[in-house]
Amino acid sequence: MTRLFAVFVLCAGFLAPPLATAEAKDPPRDQLVIGITQFPSTFHPNIDAMLAKSYILAMTRRPFTAYDQNWRLVCMLCVDLPTIENGLAVPERTPKGKRGIAVTYTIRKEALWGDETPVSTRDVVFTWKAGRHPMSGVGNVEFYRSLYKIDVKDEKTFTLHFDKLTFEYNAINGFQLIPAHLDAPSFADPAEYKHRTAFDADTTNKGLYFGPYRIAEVATGSHVVLVPNATWWGSKPRFKRIVVRVVPNTAALEANVLSGAIDMIAGELGLTIDQALAFEKRHGDRFNLVYKPGLIYEHIDLNQDNPILKDKRVRKALIYALDRRAISEKLFDGRQPVANTNVSPLDWVHTDDIQRYEYDPKKALKLLREAGWTTLRKGVRSNKNGEKLSLEIMTTAGNRIRELVEQVLQSQWKQLGIDVRIRNQPARVFFGQTVTERKFSAMAMFAWISAPESVPRTTLHSAHIPHPGNNFAGQNYAGFVNSEVDELIELIEVELNREKRAGLWHRLQEIYADELPALPLYFRAEPYVLPKWLKGIEPTGHQDPSTLWIENWYAKSED
After folding, report:
1. How far apart are CA 380 and CA 417, in angstroms?
2. Residue 103: Cβ within 10 Å count
3. Hey, how many other C-beta atoms are within 10 angstroms of the C-beta on 364?
4. Does one domain contain both 175 and 297?
5. Of 181, 211, 239, which closes a domain?
6. Do the domain assignments include residue 226?
7. Which of 130, 196, 436, 499 is the most exposed place for a label (fewest CB within 10 A)?
8. Domain containing 341 — which CATH number?
9. Does residue 310 sit in the same domain as residue 170?
10. Separation CA 131–CA 145 (nearest Å)
């Protein structure tokens, strides 16, 4: 029941001016300035799956459950992790006779919103009702559909009733609580909720947060300031002030950390791997660089409504025409392996027993001719109707390596007469509208970051294609429709036997590799650029960011 998060980078070409409090090269140890490359499109935790938002909000709140640095599911807001073995999760039959499960959680008694209102089952019920409404704009639609009833025992304890028993029945990582006492009025008109939520209309309201920190200042597109939250129940956070500075251009980000304008560069949203390797050679004596391989899938979504891309032969020709191995070796020093499907080799369900696409321009040309693209005139292919083989590729502007990869892909496709035009956008536009509303005409390049063994329901199931009727809440941006994939997703979710589930996963990867709803590029590694004095950071390599454990970060002088 986890969600995928899209990873984007904003566009710009400037060096952000240092904050007055961060000008010194020897930074004050009660403040930490973090550099990231994008600004959130919203601060609502359940609207728009954007990593920049998740990275910041992880310092201000806690999910009920999360995967830790060892990829184990743990309780954060809950007291005990429910399991069938400990009796807090009980298989049952739904009113319709289906095999379901009742899962009981208790909220930590110390948990208070920043205005001292208890985090309670009232918030649980409101979050559920908002998530279930088809026009609310809240993502993770299947979770809210499957959660058909909530029994409230008291202010802190509740039971969730799901209409199916899944292998991840107790993982409610994406069920991020909304404060009913503050945000319920914004829900009076559900269709307008995403535009009126208190998280955006009153972002610095301390009652929106219950984590180690709360948001105290927001400068849109520039920075977010966080200060300790007085109602936090856990270990006292070490820094009196955290500034998350947005430096959209990755070259400018590097310059900012060298000048002392920022203290560190987040691995989740920072330098590309090639920049980090070069940076380490030049400045490794001043900084600690940590490379964390992870479940970050760089790919190109292919709009299945495009008449050219509807033909699977064209989709296969596009990938056969690419020398992805050379891209990985030359640009990333081999540290980012070529992807064959959306499942990382680090995940236990990964299989190599699928169709693979090595660089083969002859095979690509054969497929194009079979698809009717037989005429080559002035370097561009056309079919018998005179239609040109012309496509548009889009990504977030300002990320040097993505733009370089785009140019390499464009050049390789051009050799076969495929005319590909590049049109990039700032991330807030690309992510907030173009991709989520499926406004890209052909190809959209970005990354998904997921949890371990994350079932790709929202990205591949036909029921999750964004459209006006669901207020664009789905994440199947390609518009991929495959009945067997739909069935496999349903079966994987409810198969408790690991061996049987692995077989289903393998079949899903076979279909993905054959149908190519997206062009797999590579799996990314996250490079963290850290000052020598900063300790306690533990990268996860998955969608739960390192900032979920921000209270463990400290300056070396505190040792």
Report:
1. 4
2. 22
3. 25
4. no
5. 181
6. no
7. 499
8. 3.10.105.10
9. no
10. 9
Closest Cα to residue 464, out of 41, 98, 145, 147? 145
Number of domains in the chain: 2
pTM for the full model?
A: 0.79
Distances (CA, A) of 275 to 72, 92, 527: 31, 53, 9
CB atoms within 10 A of CB 235: 10
**Are residues 301 and 169 part of one domain?**
no
For every one of its 559 residues, what pLDDT tens digit does the chain have, with 9 covering 90 and above?
A: 444 545 433 333 333 444 444 444 454 589 999 999 989 989 999 988 788 999 999 999 999 999 999 999 999 999 999 999 999 999 999 999 999 999 999 999 999 999 999 999 999 999 999 999 988 888 778 899 999 999 999 999 999 999 999 999 999 999 999 999 999 999 999 999 999 999 999 999 999 999 999 999 999 999 999 999 999 999 999 999 999 999 988 889 999 999 999 999 999 999 988 889 999 999 999 999 999 988 999 999 999 999 999 999 999 999 999 999 999 998 888 889 999 999 999 999 999 999 999 999 999 999 999 999 999 999 999 999 999 999 999 998 877 788 999 999 999 999 999 999 999 998 878 988 999 999 999 999 999 988 899 999 999 999 999 999 888 888 999 999 999 999 999 999 999 999 999 999 999 999 999 999 999 999 999 999 999 999 999 999 998 999 999 999 999 864 4
Helices (H), 440-495: 457-460, 483-494
Do the beta carbons of residue 182 and residue 196 sit within 8 Å?
Answer: no
Domain that holds residue 447: 293-524
Last residue in a domain, options 140, 164, 181: 181
Whether 88 is in a domain gets the answer: yes
For residue 17, being part of any structural domain is answered with: no
Residue 287 CA to its chain's centroid (Å): 27
Separation of alpha carbons 111 and 119, rounded Å: 6
Residue 406: half-sphere exposure toward Cβ, Cα within 13 Å: 22
Classify burial at 398, counting beta carbons within 10 Å of its beta carbon; exposed 0-12, middle 13-18, buried 19 or more: buried
Alpha helices by DSSP H, listed for 191-300, are 193-196, 198-201, 250-259, 273-283
CATH number at residue 84: 3.90.76.10
Same domain, 298 and 165: no
